[in-house]
Recover the amino acids of this structure.
């Protein structure tokens, strides 16, 4: 398995929740510095490519814009309760790494496990869909929340799509929609760990921690879709079904 920025960040968050002896540096700022150093180590030892670093930068930009909106005084979807210096507005800078960790992981596993696809939908349609998904993260505060419509459109576009991944020497496959759900579920578990570690809190957690609602899975699923399409725009899509004589039944595990 590839070294994961997401796992590293979760470990740092949990450890510093219970033991953080550096009085001269805010905990949030320490997490930011640790994330930057970890990212540099990945690049230095070529565990991550420059193309993957570009993906991380894109995620930072997209995530920071959304974080600034969601934590604004007018919206307050969640908040970062501790002090920090490295930040913009109400948003500490390490938050960009939490989102880019998802993009980084997707980019690296797609290379390591040689991701290929069958019956991948038109790329232009996927771009339009994720633009609508991203917009809905903002607009649902003012107009109707279209997440269920977007999920139905996602199911319609990707219901035939399978992801093919190499395990040792054999490519196996699974429905892409299922793969996204499994990763979204993992992110939901990670979110519970992060809120427990006081990294950010929702309004209902102000007076004491409680588990994040399962309804957040829809948000993480849509974020997975957004992340995935962003990665494919940089890395491209290897669609096996476009190859002459393709038969997905020949793929082990299909």
């Amino acid at each position: 398995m590839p070294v994961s920025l997401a796992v590293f960040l979760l470990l740092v968050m949990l450890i510093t929740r219970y033991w953080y002896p550096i009085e001269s540096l805010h905990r949030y700022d320490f997490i930011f510095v640790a994330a930057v150093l970890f990212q540099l180590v990945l690049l230095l030892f070529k565990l991550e490519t420059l193309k993957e670093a570009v993906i991380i930068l894109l995620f930072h930009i997209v995530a920071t814009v959304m974080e600034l909106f969601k934590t604004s005084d007018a919206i307050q979807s969640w908040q970062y309760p501790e002090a920090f210096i490295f930040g913009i507005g109400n948003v500490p800078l390490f938050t960009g790494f939490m989102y880019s960790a998802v993009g980084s992981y997707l980019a690296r596993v797609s290379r390591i496990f040689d991701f290929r696809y069958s019956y991948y939908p038109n790329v232009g349609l996927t771009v339009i869909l994720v633009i609508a998904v991203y917009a809905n993260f903002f607009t649902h505060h003012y107009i109707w929340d279209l997440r269920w419509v977007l999920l139905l459109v996602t199911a319609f576009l990707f219901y035939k799509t399978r992801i093919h991944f190499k395990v040792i020497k054999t490519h196996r496959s699974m429905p892409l929609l299922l793969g996204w759900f499994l990763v979204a579920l993992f992110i939901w578990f990670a979110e519970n760990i992060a809120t427990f570690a006081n990294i950010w809190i929702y309004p209902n957690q102000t007076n004491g921690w409680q588990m994040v609602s399962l309804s957040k899975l829809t948000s993480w699923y849509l974020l997975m879709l957004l992340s995935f399409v962003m990665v494919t725009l940089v890395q491209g899509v290897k669609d096996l079904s476009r190859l002459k004589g393709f038969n997905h039944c020949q793929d082990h595990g299909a």
Observations:
- The two ends are 22 Å apart (CA to CA).
- Helices lie at 5-18, 27-44, 50-70, 95-112, 123-139, 147-158, 176-196, 216-235.
- The chain has a mean pLDDT of 90.
- The chain is about 55% helix and 5% strand.
